Amino acid sequence: MKRMTKLTTLIATAAATATFAFSASAETVTIGTEGAYPPFNYIESDGKIAGFDVDIALALCERMDVECDVVAQDWDGIIPGLLAKKYDVIVASMFITEERKKQVDFTDPYYLAAMTHVVPKDSGITEFTKESLAGKIIGAQSGTTQADYAEATYTDSEIRLYPTQDEVNLDMASGRIDLQVGDFLPMLDWTTKSDDGGCCVLAGEPITDPAFVGEGVGMAVRQEDDELREKLNKALAEIRADGTYLEINNKYFDIDVYTMK
Predict the structure, then answer these.
(1) Which of 17, 70, 166, 191 is the most buried (most CB within 10 A)?
(2) What are phi and psi of 142, to 5 degrees?
(3) How far, CA to CA in Å, does 92 sit from each of 3, 97, 175, 241?
(4) Are 257 and 111 in contact (CB under 8 A)?
């Protein structure tokens, strides 16, 4: 019988420490996620961490026959936290990019990636070029590929960066920014399923430039933890094959995010 997975909600801080690395004999794997990126990861009213990322992580831990602890870490410190061994793996909707590969290793992608523009319904913004958006105020979450894309593409615009996606959304709904660049699936969820997101719509073609969205969304491990990476890949293939992945997927999305179909 497989060991039951356990979800322990902890809030990671700069003072948090850990002194272990994953090993074959480990019975607990600690998962790091952001906790501020619904529907992928978020904090519920009772303090528990929930979302698609968390459900996938728990399913993988069950398949690997280990217990799971899940901790929340601010996005800007999420890779440093992994390297400092506060957790064993990041499952936080992280795009696989060449820049990040310099610091961490990634599993196979567990869903595909795209970004999008979000504009107010009455904005009249239909073109997304450096020239057409000159002088506009564009929001994005700091430390993300969305922020990298906005800063590289719209050099004649004012780029405002925020610690969390929720703060970008708040300023968008309040009219303090003209548009934002966000991750496609959370933005689709926000604009179609939330009251404040009703202000806005997705606009333009999905942004799929590999220079920014990389190879998809993967789980990050320390570069020395090849065994854990291989175990996660094996478990991911198994939950895709037996329908567990799709069952989790369908709780959150109307399409299969693994294939975007």
Answers:
(1) 70
(2) -65, 150
(3) 24, 14, 28, 22
(4) yes
- The 3-state DSSP class for residue 38 equals coil
CA distance 137 to 93: 26
Are 66 and 44 contacting, i.e. CB atoms less than 8 angstroms apart? no
Sheet with 217-221: list strands edge to edge: 9-11, 67-72, 28-33, 89-95, 217-221, 105-106
Q: Return the sign of the alpha-carbon dihedral for residues 217, 218, 220, 224.
A: negative
- Taking the C-alpha atoms of residue 43 and residue 11, their distance in angstroms, rounded to an integer, is 10
Q: Tell me the CB-side half-sphere exposure of residue 87, using CA atoms within 13 A.
A: 32
Dihedrals φ, ψ of 104, to 5°? -135, 165
Question: Model confidence over 95-123: pLDDT tens digits?
Answer: 999 999 999 999 999 999 899 999 999 99
Q: How far apart are CA 182 and CA 174, in angstroms?
A: 17
pTM for the whole structure: 0.78
